Amino acid sequence: MGPGPSLTYPEVYEAMARPTLGHLDPYFIEIMDGIKEMLQAVFRTKHSLTIPVSGTGSAGMETVLVNLIEPGDPVLIIINGVFGKRQLDIAQRLGAEADALEFTWGKPVDPDTVAQSLKNRKYKIVSMVHAETSTGVCNPAEEVGELVASRGDGAFYLLDTVTSLGGMEVDVDGWKVDAVYSGTQKCLSCPPGLAPVSFSQRAVDSIMNRRTKVPNWYLDMSMVANYWAGKKRAYHHTAPINMLYGLYQALYLVLDEGLEKVYRRHTRAHEHLVEGLEKLGMSMVVEPPYRLPMLNAVRIPEGIDDAEARKRLRYEHNIEIGGGLGDFAGKVWRIGLMGNTARPEHVDRLLKALKAII
Ligand SMILES: Cc1ncc(COP(=O)(O)O)c(C=O)c1O
């Protein structure tokens, strides 16, 4: 019940234990095609370059930035937590002229302030985190997408959906997102190890027409795409076969339950948790309309030792929750209700344990 990894589905473990096929085996290629199709459904996109990158969520972040940024590109990074800062770090390493637009941690991004920044400078890329795992805030992904598109100056909109994908609405096409990435270990309830990404045709065209080579061989989409698409699949790197079995199964389970039902299950578990925490006298960090269902940031009660309480939860009750990150370290707990973890019985068990400890 921390900020990820979540409880892996038993069926995903089973899938991962199946015999390892060759990475160009025709049956494995069928599995890859199934994954692409299911990822399009979960991301709600028709983008044909929709694939899992080998690596965790950070590999997804690095993939979208390293493929779209060239040295000197003007980039706007919208930041209200740890993961926005990480995007800025990567953009700066790539030689972008990166402007950071910072908001208070625990509060959502304000679209009016974003609109003002977009008037002040023409950007090639505007990037934001949808679900800020460090604070539990949901950012206005749709509004910012609308703002970027309405400028009409061709800027690319990049979105981090590592924590939101599979747990709440993500609508890549509807929100006009050009490059999006996620991870397997949160609401998809698959172990960490893959990073689903998706690029619009406009973004793909820009990658194919770069002035400079993508400065990262492993994550260069112009080469990786040849393994994932087309009639003749070309070797790039050996795919993590069994991880991909796991992702196939996880996506299958999410779509079999139905996206709307899955989102509702997350919302219900979140409401049940908040009600219970408030009964225990605890207060949430984020205002209700901006709370993420899958990442609940709660203030640590006065007089409770953060590390000691989490240690007792782990060893006496077998439950893991997360501590605060960055500015929130020592002040906040982060309780994950992600994917297979988002169930009332898990919430009840945690509330009972917290009551005993407090
Ligand atoms: C919003 C967000 N972005 C990126 C990442 C990085 O993902 P990973 O730790 O899987 O590399 C995380 C991880 O928690 C995250 O929550």
UniProtKB/TrEMBL annotation:
Entry annotated with the keyword Cell membrane: no
GO biological processes: glycine biosynthetic process, by transamination of glyoxylate
This protein's UniProt keywords: Aminotransferase, Pyridoxal phosphate, Transferase
GO molecular function, one term: L-serine-pyruvate transaminase activity
Binding site residues for substrate: R334
PTM sites of type N6-(pyridoxal phosphate)lysine: K186
Domain Aminotransferase class V: 14-323
Gene3D superfamilies tied to this protein: Aspartate Aminotransferase, domain 1 (3.90.1150.10), Type I PLP-dependent aspartate aminotransferase-like (Major domain) (3.40.640.10)
Family in the record: Belongs to the class-V pyridoxal-phosphate-dependent aminotransferase family.
Protein name: Alanine--glyoxylate aminotransferase
Organism encoding this protein: Marispirochaeta aestuarii
The organism's taxonomic lineage, starting at the top: Bacteria, Pseudomonadati, Spirochaetota, Spirochaetia, Spirochaetales
